[in-house]
Amino acid sequence: MNGKISDGRQLSDLEREMIELFVRMADVLNLPRSVGEIYGILFVSPGPLCLDDCRLRLNISKGSTSQGLKILRSFGAIRTVYIPGDRKDYYMAETSLRKIASGFASEQIQPHVASGKDRLFRIRELLADESEAEREHWEEKIELLENWQKKAGTTLPVILKLIST
Amino acid sequence: MNGKISDGRQLSDLEREMIELFVRMADVLNLPRSVGEIYGILFVSPGPLCLDDCRLRLNISKGSTSQGLKILRSFGAIRTVYIPGDRKDYYMAETSLRKIASGFASEQIQPHVASGKDRLFRIRELLADESEAEREHWEEKIELLENWQKKAGTTLPVILKLIST
DNA sequence: GATAAGTTTCATCGATTTTTGAATGTTTTA
DNA sequence: TAAAACATTCAAAAATCGATGAAACTTATC
Q1: Contact assessment for residue B38 and residue B49, using Cβ atoms and an 8 Å cutoff
Q2: Is the pLDDT of residue B150 over 60?
Q3: Which residue of A has its CA nearest to B150?
Q4: Angle between helix A110-128 and B13-28 (nearest 10)
Q5: What is the pLDDT along chain A (165 residues), one digit of tens a residue?
Q6: Nucleotide nearest to B63 (CA to C1')
Q7: Among all strands, which nt has the closest C1' to A58 (CA)?
Q8: If you placed Cys at A34, which of A64, A66, A102, B137 could pair as Cys (CB 3.0 to 4.6 Å)?
């Protein structure tokens, strides 16, 4: 046992309670539990942690930890810290809500919005094959959905503006 | 076979494609697939449908259909239609994005925000037992989270306002 | 260039969630 | 109040999703 504070010692009540908070957030955002745990351990830590630090303190597997760090990196919820003379990658939690939210929006939400747009386009194509009467029936429904689509597209940026104030 | 348009006949390409759209939305919102399907079949239908209409056209079980309708009712995504001289309950899709979103927010999101608030309060209590030095270390993190909390609370209502315009 | 350190990938396992359908509950009608 | 018409519940089955850890991969060190 060396002197590193991050080795596999038990988590304190305070730490556990806070990590649980992030696990719940992950749940709401439809992210794996381990992603919440990893963000949590980085958030409560006074300094950067490496993959092994995280997994030892959380008692989770190497695979989950690697995968979780990748997800958190993908939307900028953590940042990589370079520590001279150490080959390991170190991470710390990004605490700017604006940065995290905008990363999440563009990486996890936008793709869904985009694929919905595609599908709506395909629906318009299918509609061309239908009879006049059928087209009439569908037209209003499709317009409704296009309106939803548009709102999703315009609302997201506004939310981000709001959060950053 | 009677003359009802809603009996178990095959779905058209157009119908299937549109229902799929709602299944994807359900997925993003972390709701069961069947909930998306049921909303979808109600959305594409020209008139109200009863439980059996839905399940026959979608080929899903009675249990799923009952459960799905209950969930959709719980946040106001569908409305119940009374048809004189018929004992069955009929449903139609609510198409106001504002109504659906605000129902979803208050039924599915708010409870999470509230329980997060509770947890943060419990964390403050735990903090009282810590030494002066420890308290110092945690104070800024807790303040950060309280700030997030506050933003979640104020942003949600604003989003709903935005959607309704 | 062989070894060691660190990370990622992926097949499999396990846990959780959803679906099913039979049983149960409720309301209406005759 | 018996029977019929519907809706709901719930235990069991099926499907889904995340976690695991061994193997593969990459990069650095000697």
Answers
A1: no
A2: yes
A3: A163
A4: 170
A5: 333 434 567 899 999 999 999 999 999 999 999 999 999 999 999 999 999 999 999 999 999 999 999 999 999 999 999 999 999 999 999 999 999 999 999 999 999 999 999 999 999 999 999 999 889 999 999 999 999 999 999 999 998 888 887
A6: C20
A7: D19
A8: A64
- How many Cα atoms are found within 13 Å in the side-chain-facing hemisphere of A85? 0
Tell me which residues of chain A have a C-beta less than 8 Å from any C-beta of chain B: 13-14, 17-18, 20-21, 24-25, 27-28, 30, 43-44, 46, 95, 97, 109, 112, 115-116, 119-120, 122-123, 126-127, 130, 134, 137-138, 141, 144-145, 147-148, 151, 155, 158-159, 162-163
Q: Which residues of B touch A42 (CB under 8 A)?
A: none
Give pTM, 2 decimals. 0.92
Q: Is A32 left (phi over 0), alpha (psi -120 to 50) or beta?
A: beta
Distance in Å, alpha carbon of B110 to nearest chain A alpha carbon: 11
Short-list A19, A67, A27, A62, CA closest to A43: A19
In single-letter form, the type of residue at position B133 comes to A
Q: How many CB atoms are closer than 10 A to CB B96?
A: 13
Question: In angstroms, what CA-CA distances link A154 with A140, A141, A146, A150, B19?
Answer: 21, 20, 12, 6, 24
CA distance A111 to chain B (A): 11
Q: Look at the alpha carbons of A47, A48, A50, A54 in this order and tell me if their dihedral is positive or negative.
A: positive
